[in-house]
Write a structure and sequence with these properties.
mainly alpha; three-stranded antiparallel sheet; 6% strand; single chain; 432 residues; binds s-citryldethia Coenzyme A
Length: 432
Amino acid sequence: MTQKTFELVDQSNDRKMTLPVRAGTIGPSVVDIAKLNKELGVFTYDPGFGMTAATESRITYIDGDAGVLLYRGYPVEQLAEKSTFMEVAYLLLHSELPTRKQLDEFIGNIRHHTMINESLLRFFHGFHYDAHPMAMVSAVIASMSAFYHDSMDIYNPRHREIFAHRIIAKIATIAAAAHKHSLGQPHVYPRNDLDYCSNLLHMLYAVPCEPYEIDPVAAQALDLLFILHADHEQNASTSTVRLAGSTGANPYAAVAAGVSALWGPAHGGANEAVLSMLEQIGTVDNIPKFLAQAKDKSSHVRLMGFGHRVYKNFDPRAKIIRETCHKVLSRLGRSDNPLFELALRLEEIALKDEYFVARKLYPNVDFYSGIIYSAIGIPRSMFTVMFAIARTVGWVAHWQEMIGDPAMRIGRPRQLYTGPARREYTSIAKRA
Ligand code: SDX
């Protein structure tokens, strides 16, 4: 089959070049512009990289118009219904669903790394009690490279595998330690007899002075939320991890950079912002007034949890989380949760509003997730930390895919320069 090409003509001087087009398995093809500057002396211009394929990847596929999300080809709806977070982690890291033996071995490897160095625990004492948990988590993760000199050769596949097990296991322990520090309570050590999410709940909520009983409803809800948040193609935080990792920086530093990028309210910080927004709106009667603000650009107010760079249809994760809200709240005996009722009405009214319809703004993964986190007792400041725990799997999968690619090069975008042309220095005595 002859390769498809695009013809590009510079009409100012009749120069032209043929651009090769590469097709993926599914989804849009890409125009290879590697020789564009050499042949025509120009760059492409795409602020925010909205129309730029920064890499080739085999991990996750999104069709934003159809509302499709596939992890290694498997629809996220099927994984949400039938799989577990640990099985999805294995799938994202190893490309295939595991056999029972492979999954048991993977879970065993994760469990082997759940504790963190006692010196790392002392880092938390340096933070104020009211430090934001994302600040503590990103700082402690960045510091992990100081403890693992034995496995820092990023070109050694075994070192990359140990890193993957360590960071996936320890991010939960670090997250819980940040929460405990905020409460002024002692750190609770992990329990390797528990599954990943039950252990996280145990480390978040148990106290030394009394037994703690894990609520299976809460553990199942967390497991589902972590499946849905595990990966999402080249989103801002994953692209940050790839860019940081492309310099050869150690993987802990790259993941810490991803945690920082995720923190922003336009990205993973939106789940925390949605709850604040719902509390600010307060009642259904205030919805029209708030939406008027969200539609007024000068207000700098946005309908948090709505809109997406890629989804111009329902975010499939939002649909699943909304249905889960119903189940979790009723099983926890909180089906009359006022914030959930308000969120449902807000969604209903916004989806009938021409402003949101015309811009194809739908609820995204962050719109309902905070309501479930709240219902299972997670404090608002920890919502984005929960997102980071799940997304660590995706960050690691993408970092491994990039580092394992022999064609990997340091990421280095170019620019359109609109500053002053060359000019000569003048001494201060001659300046007006
Ligand atoms: C995540 O990339 C990923 O995959 C991210 C993520 C993942 O799993 O990694 O899915 C997780 O980050 C979800 C998004 C969470 N963020 C929010 O919920 C914050 C609120 N949403 C927005 O700020 C916004 O929708 C973004 C940041 C999500 C998307 O920004 P874009 O693609 O740059 O959209 P845009 O600003 O170009 O919006 C197009 C229009 C603009 O109006 P016009 O200039 O055309 O008149 O829609 C408006 C925007 O002003 N708009 C909104 C809006 N989102 C977009 N107006 C009001 N409220 C909003 N939420």
